[in-house]
Amino acid sequence: CWELKRKFRLKRKGETPMRILRRGFLVGVLALAFAPQSVRADTILYATDFANSRIWSVDVTNGTNTLVTQTPGRADSLIFGPNGNLIYSLLDTGQLGTFNGTTNTILVGGLGQPADLTLEPSRNSVLIADHLGGRILRYVLGAPNATTLASGLFRVDGLTYDNSGKLFAVIGQNAVAQIDPLNGHIIKERFLGGARPDGITFDPVSGALWVSDRSGNALFKVPTDLTSSTVFAAGLIPLPDGLESDGSGNIFVAASGTNVYEYNIAGNIVTQENAVPGLDDLAPLTGLGAPTPEPGSLLLFGSGFLTIAGYFRRRPRTRLLSGRPKRRELA
What we know:
By secondary structure, the protein is mainly β.
């Protein structure tokens, strides 16, 4: 050390090469710990089991699923309301239900064929995709009925808001559209060729929309100005349906009736996670419709010690009946 000190002529009072090394190591560790691509915001997912009328808590850290509730019908989509209760759509009965931790209650009916849901920025209303009715409905929490925001869309699948308050929907056979949340008019559209888009989510890390494609077993990345579209993970996610960003560079995808898949954007890697029978959709992990407070918030905003510990802890991969999860690096 003294030789290093002599060579580099360190003149700062009390400075030594060892102190420089310690400080550099600490800065490096903190930089890695707070890098948005490195810290997962959430490892607990909430999923609908459409086939069996259930909602599951899915822990992709240790590969376990926990039954949350048996729903009074086949639940298609789910979000968390502003009071922390689950809100879910019942496709067959045309209703919206809620679960407060102990009891299921029907909030409203007469919704046609309610599929995807999104909480609005006001956090006091929910938008509902009336799938075959080609409508987007708005339900103000506590109101006796829902109202129609948009109609004549032929078919509506996924719904999402971005972080600037723009509303997007998967409509028709193969289009992503920006919808005016005040009058329901289509502002612009992006057609995805021969794809069969279904779910949609906004990812704040990439600043783009991500859309599931059931015909190509893939994901589309679409900028919020809807000027282009790019295919990722082609052929690697069977029948992708609902999908959600974790806000940390990962997209979690519900493959219809089978498994949760994780797509890491920076690494361009697909990982097969927990098996969930009857899987259809996932609740948001961050932002509108996510649990409050969002899981992982202590990890992101708590003490530096917790952040560093969370970064270095080895995350065990899910073990499935068929063996270890499939980790695939894409070309």
